[in-house]
Specification:
With 403 residues, the chain is an alpha+beta fold. It folds into four domains: 147 residues, Beta Polymerase, domain 2 (2-Layer Sandwich); 146 residues, Orthogonal Bundle (cca-adding enzyme, domain 2); 52 residues, no CATH class; 40 residues, no CATH class. The chain has a seven-stranded mixed sheet with strand order 3-4-5-2-1-8-9. It has a two-stranded antiparallel ribbon with strand order 6-7. It is elongated and about 85 Å long. The chain starts with 12 loop residues before the first helix and ends with a helix.
Length: 403
């Protein structure tokens, strides 16, 4: 008897209307991939993708006839985004690969659901769902989902040679959905073919790495990446630094209720050295926001767990607050003898509101100082004395100190 999924999202009016339209007049459409996998695991559903035997032009025409908006967002891959009642769905034509080069694939539209399933990477992603919630499982992926087994479809090496990014996807999906250890044949294939990762764009590599690091607990996946040499291929900076800090960070997240932070986990496995950070940022073409946070983290002055609150606040004034948060989280995760002191400092940090220095350059000019570098030097000197005085000196008191 076919497995059925009975969940509210499947019966949403917009989704049912879309499937009804696509299934009319020799059309055939099913929910595909991640939504089916997550439903079987009773995990949150984010995006709902649809597979259909209709070509994109026919999808667009059917939507137009029914008065629904459709946008050819990925027409080269056979994908049309359809919007119904504010809900967006990617509708992709069944395909089969006719040529692959390790990065991209040339595809032909098809009508065979098994062919479409076989061109996917992992069995847990080759699942479909009918409008009534019946699971269509052409390659045995449902059993792998339920047993939390992550394995390639058919021959692992063949799947990887089609697109070397699948090496990282193998570990990413293991981080999110795997149990015990990754599939042995998959591990062997990733080890043998890891050199192909050099052919991928930096953006694609970082996209997969960031999603892997955002898993509830990526430590086992990172360990297997280390064992296979895949981690060194994409993050050579970790080779002499190691990944031992990661399990402690996972435990600290659980113990203290910290939100999952993939970038903090990256910090845990790379050395806090500016030249290494710059190398990673350039090689992976990291987004400016990510690059900036890493750089600020590296530039934080060393922590002193013995600082009391007033001296800590004075030290904190000169630091980047996010970078100090990152540094304290990593220090707490080490669970050493200073952990309680770092936790206390983290409490102070959360309550911290940076005081505003009351002087401006114009105040000194009004008192007769000539504009120029001397103004900045004097301001910095006065600001330093104001901080050492625990931010209590008023504007007039500071100006009275001007020689």
């Amino acid at each position: 008897m076919a497995e059925r999924i009975d969940q509210d999202w499947i019966t949403s009016p917009s989704l049912q209307e879309l499937l009804r339209l696509l299934n009319e007049e020799n059309g055939e459409a099913r929910i595909a991939g991640g939504a089916v996998r997550n439903a079987l695991l009773d995990q949150p559903i984010s995006d709902v993708d649809i597979a259909t035997n209709l070509v994109p032009r026919d999808v667009i025409l059917r939507m137009q006839a029914a008065g629904h908006k459709s946008v050819p967002t990925g027409i080269e891959h056979g994908t049309v985004t359809v919007v119904l009642d504010g809900d967006a769905y990617e509708v992709t034509t069944l395909r089969r690969d006719i040529e692959t080069d390790g990065r991209h694939a040339k595809v032909l539209y098809g009508t065979d659901w098994v062919d479409d399933a076989r061109r996917r990477d992992l069995t847990i992603n080759a699942l479909y769902l009918n409008a009534d919630g019946t699971v269509y499982d052409p390659l045995g992926g449902m059993q792998d989902v339920l047993s939390q087994t992550v394995r390639f479809i058919d021959d692992a090496e063949t799947r990887i040679r089609e697109d070397y990014l699948r090496i990282l996807r193998f570990f990413r999906f293991f981080a999110w959905y795997g149990k015990f250890r990754p599939d042995a044949e998959g591990l062997k294939a990733c080890t043998r073919l890891k050199g192909g990762l050099s052919e991928l764009s930096a953006e694609r590599i970082w996209h997969e790495l960031s999603r892997l690091l955002a898993a509830p607990d990526p430590s086992r996946a990172i360990l297997w990446m280390r064992q296979t040499g895949v981690l060194s291929a994409v993050l050579p900076e970790t080779e002499k630094w190691g990944i031992d800090a990661l399990p402690g960070l996972m435990e600290a997240e659980r113990q203290h209720g910290w939100q999952v932070d993939g970038l903090l986990r990256l910090m845990a496995i790379i050395p806090p050295m500016e030249e290494r950070i710059l190398a990673i940022s350039d090689r992976l073409k990291l987004p400016n926001k990510v690059k900036s946070r890493l750089k600020n983290w590296v530039h934080v002055e060393p922590l002193d767990a013995s600082l009391k609150q007033d001296p800590f606040n004075q030290w904190l004034y000169w630091q980047n607050q996010t970078a100090v948060t990152d540094t304290l989280h990593l220090a707490i995760a080490k669970s050493d003898a200073e952990m309680k002191k770092y936790l206390r400092q983290l409490k102070w940090l959360k309550r911290w509101k940076k005081p505003e220095f009351p002087l401006r350059g114009g105040d000194l000019i009004d008192l007769g100082m000539e504009p120029g570098p001397a103004i900045s030097e004097k301001l910095l000197q006065l600001e330093g004395s104001w901080v050492k005085g625990n931010f209590t000196a008023s504007k007039d008191e500071l100006l009275s100190k001007r020689p």
